[in-house]
Amino acid sequence: MARYELVKRSVALITLTNPPVNALSSAVRHAMAKSMEQALNDPKVTAVVICGENGRFCGGADIREFAGPLRGPPLVPLLDAIEAGEKPVVAAIEGVALGGGFELALVCHYCIAHFKARLGLPEVTLGILPAAGGTQRLPRLIGIPAALELITTGRHISAQEALKLGIVDQVTEQNACEVAVEFALRAVAKPLSSRRVSMLTTPCPPDLDALLEVVTMEVKKKARGVMAPLACIQAVRAAATMPYSKGIKRESELMATLFNSGQARALQYCFFAQRTAGKWTLPSGAQWNNSKPREIRSAAIIGLGTMGRGIVVSLARVGISVIAVESEKKLLETGKQMVIGMLERDAKRRGVSASLNLLKFTLSLQDLKDVDLVIEAVFEDMALKKRVFQELSKVCRPATLLCTNTSGLDVDALAGVTDRPHLVVGMHFFSPAHVMKLLEVVCGPRSSSETIATAMSLGKRMGKVSVAVGNCPGFVGNRMLKPYMDQATFLLEEGATPEQIDKALEDFGFAMGVFRMSDLAGLDVGWRIRKESGLTGPDVDPKNPPRRRHGRRYCPIPDMVCEQGRFGQKTGRGWYMYDKPGGTNAKPDPLIQNLLEMYRSRYAIQPRNISDQEIIERCLFALANEGFRILEDGIAARPEDIDVIYLFGYGFPRHRGGPMFYASMVGLERVLERLEHYHQAHPDVPHLEPSPLLKKLVACGSPSVQTWREHIKTMHSHL
Ligand SMILES: CC/C=C/CC(=O)SCCNC(=O)CCNC(=O)[C@H](O)C(C)(C)COP(=O)(O)OP(=O)(O)OC[C@H]1O[C@@H](n2cnc3c(N)ncnc32)[C@H](O)[C@@H]1OP(=O)(O)O
């Protein structure tokens, strides 16, 4: 857990050895305490260097240990002892120094960082604060404004930025450990008092209160209802106003308020869920660690609409040659100009040169004959997509992977028109595709494990969080969205307003409520799909009573909004009104209010007062209920996959953990009871009927979300 060696006859080299990230587990803390004691007591030792095995200094506390009782020596006294020691201690930072790892570096009297190293205090992203002196030492070292920014955002910084801020003493391109040993030898006998950061006085700006107020406002705006960043601000205030001995107590009190909170549990769950999601498994036994992805050097994108353009940018910026195809010259030229602009802006922001030489634009599918992989991103129309796939089947070499960016159509039906169904897979990007991190990899029943592995690995290469899902209408994300949005529109019928529903959802933590989000995405797409499926428009079966389709409740208000040409932000009118087409400042529109009143009076609906609690329960429990069905159907392998999809694709607040984790936090029994209640009140809404899996989990005593998988006995997985 920590290796102790004597090097250069007088330097104690302590190496943390806890792969993969040398986390400060109880065993590591114990070994470190012993090693430090040995180094400080051995008269041969004149200096100490601390480093991490395998080119990684330290990834911080062992997050897995947070779930249990604290074992082993606490970190704060250990770090205080290192700082107070009479022998110079040098941190040799390679890879990462994060959280407790960064706090360890802060107590070392000197820091040497490899030029590729990254440092940061990401505790806030786990719902806690840097409680091993980080909130007290960092402001003393780099000042309040810079420390506040790093602590409240959890941002990682480069070694170069750490040098500029005065956190590290030297950045090297050589082996940081060897450089640190030489540095340590030179530091022997130099006075250490000025190197003990806890002894420094925090440089305090004259307008401290005003600064803290501004940061508090920013944090509240960015992360509504999130506790940890506010606690971080209070801890930093203590660093400015109290001596270290008192500040560290305040830090510990604030940590106690966060440590066992639901938010901390949710955020730590998200950390592991994100990592679990990449570990896909098929019933055949093929999985992430036994299926080799193909190397992708070249790709083609068909369709240069919003999605296609974003996908081209995502591929080109990781060094993949891309051929972009459009059907008309004008569309091709417009798409080309937009892609080039996007890539240039992206490159400027990242301080690199734009990889324009990797791009080719063409009107001919014949140009795709040699590419490794094609992603079709044409209009959401099955007949059109089938034509494209048939054509690709003829044009591309037999080994080319054929992928579709459909957001909900049958991937297997597309595979069926090709000569290589095993090489067909869905790659469902989210708009804008070069920004959004989520990728649903849709596994058809005939997709080979190599094909899935390749799509998952390509997603990772593009910086996406890829989740393997089964093939059904809407896959996971969009399938779950329907009951959620249905509830929102039913609530409108019953007496709520778009702004009331949005406010309840935004207070819950969503960046945007359902109606503001729909206005942003555009209302016409859903309207067209509803018309095509005969739910509205001339093809509606006249035998349907009003407000019912296929024997279920149906709300036609979204169709009525579209019939007025209100398609959302792009037309300047939607559920809200905007200053101009394309405007983003949403204001409640009296015309929508009138429409709702007329609608309710036409159908003799007596509007009632609807509480925020009912809004949250009906929208979110219906969402989770569909998630349980998705698990039963084998469309998602684990609740973590569903949660990751909602966190990264649909703006579900991270501090709530995702819809499935949220349901588990509320209590499955309570969710079941509320769904039963609402289903009784609305028996014509099947989505409110509790799913068999939810009932089964409650009958099994509501086990923790991480163990649900053991209770899902899916007859046939669709993965
Ligand atoms: C009182 C003292 C309090 C201190 C507070 C803290 O220190 S809180 C912890 C702060 N540290 C972090 O938040 C860092 C979390 N880790 C990361 O950001 C990344 O893992 C990494 C270190 C940047 C490495 O990224 P990379 O992409 O290379 O690897 P993975 O993310 O896939 O991780 C590999 C496996 O390691 C597990 N893991 C990572 N960090 C920790 C950790 N701190 N504790 C426990 N486990 C950790 C991760 O879950 C992966 O595990 P697998 O089983 O392989 O999925």
From TrEMBL:
Reaction(s) this enzyme catalyzes, per UniProt: (3S)-hydroxydecanoyl-CoA = (2E)-decenoyl-CoA + H2O; (3S)-hydroxyhexadecanoyl-CoA = (2E)-hexadecenoyl-CoA + H2O; (3E,5Z)-octadienoyl-CoA = (2E,5Z)-octadienoyl-CoA; (3S)-hydroxyhexanoyl-CoA = (2E)-hexenoyl-CoA + H2O
Pfam family, one: ECH_1
PROSITE patterns: 3HCDH, ENOYL_COA_HYDRATASE
Pathway: Lipid metabolism; fatty acid beta-oxidation
Record-annotated 3-hydroxyacyl-CoA dehydrogenase NAD binding domain positions: 299-471
GO molecular function (one): (3S)-3-hydroxyacyl-CoA dehydrogenase (NAD+) activity
Keywords from the UniProt entry: Fatty acid metabolism, Isomerase, Lipid metabolism, Lyase, Multifunctional enzyme, NAD, Oxidoreductase, Peroxisome
Family annotation (InterPro entries): 3-OHacyl-CoA_DH_CS (IPR006180), 3-OHacyl-CoA_DH_NAD-bd (IPR006176), 3HC_DH_C (IPR006108), 6-PGluconate_DH-like_C_sf (IPR008927), ClpP/crotonase-like_dom_sf (IPR029045), Enoyl-CoA_hyd/isom_CS (IPR018376), Enoyl-CoA_hydra/iso (IPR001753), NAD(P)-bd_dom_sf (IPR036291)
Domain 3-hydroxyacyl-CoA dehydrogenase C-terminal intervals: 474-578, 615-706
Compartment annotation: Peroxisome
Major subcellular site: other
EC identifiers of the protein: 1.1.1.35, 4.2.1.17, 5.3.3.8
GO annotations of cellular component type: peroxisome
One Gene Ontology term from the biological process aspect of the record: fatty acid beta-oxidation
Protein family according to the UniProt entry: Belongs to the enoyl-CoA hydratase/isomerase family.
Subunit relationships: Monomer.
Stored PANTHER family: 3-HYDROXYACYL-COA DEHYROGENASE, PEROXISOMAL BIFUNCTIONAL ENZYME
Protein name stated in the entry: Peroxisomal bifunctional enzyme
Organism: Cyprinus carpio
